[in-house]
Amino acid sequence: MWTMMSMAARGQVEARWMFGRHMSARATRQWEEKWVTLPPVTAAATVSVKGKENLKTASSTPTTALKWIVRCCPQLPKTLVHKLFRLRQVRMVSPETQIKKVAAKDTLNTGDRVLLPQSVHVKHSRPHPRPLLTPQQIHFIRALVIYKDASTLVLNKPPGMPVQGGVNVKWSLDLVAAACLNYEYSEPPRLVHRLDRDCSGILVMGRTQTGTGLLHSIFREKTSTAVDDIGKEKRILQRRYWALVLGCPRRPKGLVSTPLGKVVVDNGRSDRITIVDNSTLMSSKHAITEYRVIASSSQGYTWLELSPLTGRKHQLRVHCAEVLGTPIVGDYKYGWQAHRKWGHFDLPNADDSSEDLVDEEKLPFGLNLDKGSITENHPRLHLHCKQIVLPNISQALQNVESASNCDLSLVEELELVADMPPYMQRSWDVTNY
């Protein structure tokens, strides 16, 4: 081959080959400078639960990107990890595909690798210390506890306090709970499910790793078997929210069953959940909600009881606003136009959160639970998780060696009820006068 080439051609080939090697080495250095590559996924993490309608079958859940990061990087604060996902700064590369962005709940296969920004790894190589709370703050948080046993901790979450940390979040409920709600345990309580920042009501946490895993599986199974639960009076998990809405649904009770998808707006700075008409055009997840009218007022407001059979982000807010045509009072993200037409309020911008409208600080952590009723110009979100019925997992775990042997159909139920915040109670009194 070389004998057929001129010296100039040979030089060009050698130059291109050397340039390729140089570029490959430089690309590798840039990759290492930009990303921290976590170990490849070796096996799926599974949690098994028995006892669903006396069927001795086990369900498994594959490892998600969030779980793999927490497992591989225990030194990273969970608030930082969730922030990276919200800012879409986490990547994944697999043997079959190129590098791509990954969400917290995306599942991983064996051999997949998760990539984190190098600057985050270097800057946050040490775990953050727990916050130092004042006696007033500790008393306030402990007063939120409405139930506690060996495995479960239940709080009445105040509106305006985020469940998890993130951008511009100083105090989050998981952070302060880890600082003052572990009681006699060495490990802090762990979140089992989520509530929106502006939403109030029952929040369930696990006190032990085993209890948390079992509670997680109950909430996951609730979503995965939602279709089978339609019309059933007795379910393994029951959640009932109270919401005050603008207007009234056409029917006094019914079922909302629609796919929901997420769209990114404001150049990636925020997102919205919306009804997906054609699931082939964008990814979506099915969401099912039962509703019934509790009471209607002469002012045009309606109190609804909402029972989500699935656990999707903003599910109740979107179903009320876009399907029932009755947006929740104080929900400016999905019901701003309806609030403007209502004409009773001096409205903020559509992107403002209702907790930002309360300026006067009366409680620890900058909270104010008195202001925000419909008698004021800026009503807050009127969505409250009032009741949850779930198995008593502490009883289930007493006589078994592991969570996989629990038969939840044989244990007693816990029926937990949380009072509405003062501003919602005031709206209730006004509309039911």
How would the global form be characterised? globular
Series of H and E elements: HEHHEEEHHEEHEEHHEEEEEHHEHEH
Strand content: 15-25%
Structural class: alpha+beta
Sequence stretches where pLDDT stays below 50 over 5 or more residues: 1-5, 15-24, 44-60, 353-360
Give the strand tally.
15
End-to-end Cα distance, whole Å, is: 97 Å
The residue fraction in helices comes out at: 25-40%
Largest sheet: 11 strands, mixed
Radius of gyration: 25 Å
Please, how many helices? Answer: 12
Mean pLDDT reading: 80
How do the strands and helices of this protein lay out in sequence?
Elements: H1 7-34, E1 35-37, H2 65-72, H3 78-86, E2 91-93, E3 100-101, E4 113-117, H4 118-123, H5 135-142, E5 145-148, E6 152-157, H6 173-180, E7 190-191, E8 200-206, H7 209-224, H8 226-229, E9 238-246, E10 253-265, E11 270-275, E12 285-296, E13 301-308, H9 315-323, H10 332-342, E14 383-391, H11 393-398, E15 413-417, H12 422-431
Parallel strand pairs: 8-14
Antiparallel strand pairs: 1-4, 2-3, 2-4, 5-6, 6-8, 7-8, 9-13, 9-14, 10-11, 10-12, 12-13, 14-15
